[in-house]
Write a structure and sequence with these properties.
Oligomer: single chain
CATH topology: Four Helix Bundle (Hemerythrin (Met), subunit A)
Number of domains: 1
Strand content: under 5%
Order of helices and strands: HHHHH
Bound molecules: fe (ii) ion
Helix content: over 70%
Structural class: mainly alpha
Largest sheet: none
Low-confidence stretches: none
Number of strands: 0
Shape: globular
CATH superfamily: nmb1532 protein domain like
Distance between the termini: 13 Å
Length: about 160
């Protein structure tokens, strides 16, 4: 299942909601109780949702943060971790979801993405709350959500 087309009031709530949904998908992806054919579908949805979340986040959350000197380093680090997750997902697309190598990568990406989300929620939110105004946060949320919805559909179709 693809993740929620959120309808939250601030970009913080939207991001938190999407993190929650992505965590659930990762649990299903790495659970040994998930049948192989289901795992394949879960991976496709996870890949589309994660890439859409990361892309929309870079455009409408990281980008305004990095315009502030205080936020430059944190936003850069976050984008670097997106790149790492993207590379792992691209590797996984070439592997057999029934195989051991696929599961090893699935666990690795899960660990990295969990760490990344935690850092975002603690470190990046702390910085963004200092540098972004309330009206900016509201406007960015609208832009984030609509770009996320568009990208998720696009990536889900592309596979
Ligand atoms: Fe992120
Ligand atoms: Fe995120």
């Amino acid at each position: 299942m693809l993740i929620r087309e959120t309808n939250m009031a601030t970009i913080y709530d939207s991001i938190l909601e999407h993190h929650e949904d992505l965590k659930n998908l990762m649990k299903e992806l790495t659970s040994t109780r998930t049948p192989t054919d289901v795992r394949e579908k879960v991976f496709k949805d996870f890949a589309a949702s994660l890439e859409a979340h990361a892309g929309a986040e870079e455009r409408f959350f990281y980008s305004p943060i990095l315009m502030h000197d205080e936020g430059l380093e944190k936003a850069r680090h976050g984008a670097y971790e997106h790149e790492e997750a993207h590379d792992l997902i691209e590797d996984m697309k070439k592997l057999d979801p029934k195989g051991k190598a696929f599961m090893t990568k699935a666990k690795k990406v899960t660990k990295e993405v969990r760490h990344h989300m935690e850092e975002e929620e603690k470190e990046i939110f702390k910085t963004s709350k200092k540098v972004l105004s309330d009206s900016e946060v509201k406007k960015l949320n609208e832009q984030y959500v609509s770009d996320f919805i568009r990208l998720q559909k696009k990536y889900a179709k592309k596979g």
